[in-house]
Amino acid sequence: METADACRRRPCEWRAEGGRERIFAFPSFLTAADFLPFVFLVTPGKRPAMCKSSKSSHGLPITTTVGVARVLPSGKVYRQIFDDEINLVHALGRARSKITQHKVLPGKIPLVRDLERRTSYGFLSERQEIWSEAMPNDQLTENPVQYKKAMTQAHAKAKESESVIAAREVRGLADVIVSDKRTSDIVERIYENKKLCYEEVVAQFKQELACVGKEIEECYAKQGKLLLVQLQESDQAFEAFFRISESDVTLISYTIEDFERMWALLFQETQQRRQWIRDLDEALHQCEVDRAEQITVVLSKYTKMLEDIAYLLTSDVHRFIHKEAMMINQAVLANRRAVSKLFLNLMEADLKRDSFYRLQLEERKEVWKVVQKKHIISSFREFVESERIQNPSAVKMELESMLEDQRSLAQKRNEHLFSLGSLLPLKHTKAEINEWYESLVELNKRIDTHNVQSMMRIRLQYEKVCQECLEKLQESKQNLIDMKICTPKEAEKIVNPSFYQLIGELQLQFEVKIEKMDADLEYLVKNTEINCRHLYQYFQDVLAIFDVHQQKLTQQDNELQKALNDCRCKHENMNKLREMNLDIAVDKLRMQSTDEKLKAYLEKVYAALDIIRNGYTAFHQDLLSKVIAYPRHVRHQLLCYSATISRYFYVLGSYKGKTLKKSGGSAEGSGEDREPTEETKEVEETEEAVEILLEKESEEELLLEEGDAEGPDSIEEEEREEMEASARRSGKIGIGGDDVERAGEGNLLGPKAQGPPSQTW
């Protein structure tokens, strides 16, 4: 007879009832010990039934699909158990192989398998077999090239770079280096003293040069101010004489002698101004000569002083003074060129002034002919630029009427927009939202139509103003001809370029205003339409988010109901088997005749009743664990909904909720300090495990939606590991019930209650 340890060590053979031989081996991730003492007993063509392994020689009752019980001979019990273990191992192996085929975890280090236990399958590992059996472009299979590249990059990153080594060596150096030998600093102090004296003398040298320049600048300013005063007095005298003829009305009484007398005065003033300019030029040249003499004295003085200090060599001192002298010579030459340029500019300005006044006197003769023309032109310009023409009152009235109508329509649209706040998802449907949007579009069309009609009326008022300006133009032309200021042809030349230009500018101004208003209204219509459409889409998106949240909550309710029904069905099936065993024990009790046998079978009946009681206890704990986990699942969905809403509305934080707290105690134990029972501790541990798992799932889902660096496969693997760990913790409840059941059963061989659903995660 093959034992469980032998099954784990090597493969074995088994011949089914149909005569077909099968060879199998336990996978490295599962052994026969994982399913002991709970295994399936399989009868060909019948449904498998649960049994419990034992070393007793009693027969093992087997239940078929029709509910008929039979007893196997004691010699075939272990063979049947072993065969059922084999079938279970194969079933689990096939299920897990399907999961690995549809899930590839890139970047993970493959598990090392013991090839000695897999000699019947060849020398390739499971990963290598998947690679060899996969198609070239199969996206469900891991790419070996990418796997090798990821491993190489991981090893390269683990190595220490040269920069890190260099930084460590630099950190090992001493912070302060102490000199071993000290010397005297007398040379340095002498050098510093001479340097200080040298800098002071150089500063004095520059200061004295600045004083010389300041004195010469005062001379320049004095001569310049004198010339400006003389020129200003000359200009005022001449302007006072010409100011009399500035009025266009007095020019009509002027004669030719008056213009000649004005010209003689202009010639006399021009000669006097030119003599003043020559005197200024001579004075400035003399100032430059004085400046050169003073600078020569300063250079000689400070050359001697620098040589006495001996901070620099004599050659270096002469080189320094020579350099300064070169710069001063350049400045002096520049000043002389500036004086010459000033003289030239003043003479040119005087010539231009003489020419200007001469032309002005010649033009004065013709000015009086133009006085009336200008008067007519200015009156027409004033008419065009008047407030009545630039801003017609009729246009203002149309604009005010347009604005009032716009305000009333905009108020209706705002009220309609604010009504959107009452359209909550639970009370209104998408049809009502569509109807609201159609009403909003209709209001926008009404506003657009009103704006178009108002702009047409405003355009007509502007055209009337332009027609009035044309009538005024014809009246001005007729006045020029009637006063005999010019001929009809000259009148046409005066009117056409100036009057029509003013009217054209006015008309262009009106057109620009109208076009700007049309463009603004058109932009407003388009912008309003886009905003309304975006608002409509925005509200639809929010409704869609809420619908998804409702679907998820409904799915949680359905999953809870399904889980409770599944637990109830499993418990009923297991309870039927236990009650059947109880009936068999009671029947055997009735058939006994001696007291010892009656007591022995009575103990077995009690044990069967204990098994039924423990089954109900385990069933209650299973239902309790699922119901306790439901509020946290709902909280998880609420957190996801909160995070989705926060991202949609661009909110930095999201609602985290409050941790679900346990009730203070039952009604019977309220007010009493009692020690928590083992069952209560197990329930609390299950609740804590489920709560931790749901919080981690919520955080991982939020990180995944925000673009976390980890891939979806790694997150799913972590979730699965957390769920398995939680299942192992919560499985303590079912294990405790099984221990009680085994303790009370003794040597009785009967069907075993299935573990809690948490073990099947």
TrEMBL record:
The keyword Transmembrane helix is annotated on this UniProt entry: yes
Bias-annotated ranges (Basic and acidic residues): 671-680
UniProtKB keywords: Membrane, Transmembrane, Transmembrane helix
Protein's UniProt name: DUF4455 domain-containing protein
Domain DUF4455: start-end pairs: 192-651
Compositionally biased region (Acidic residues): 681-690, 697-724
InterPro entries xref list: DUF4455
Species name: Naja naja (Indian cobra)
Transmembrane segments: 23-43
Stretches the record annotates as Disordered: 659-761
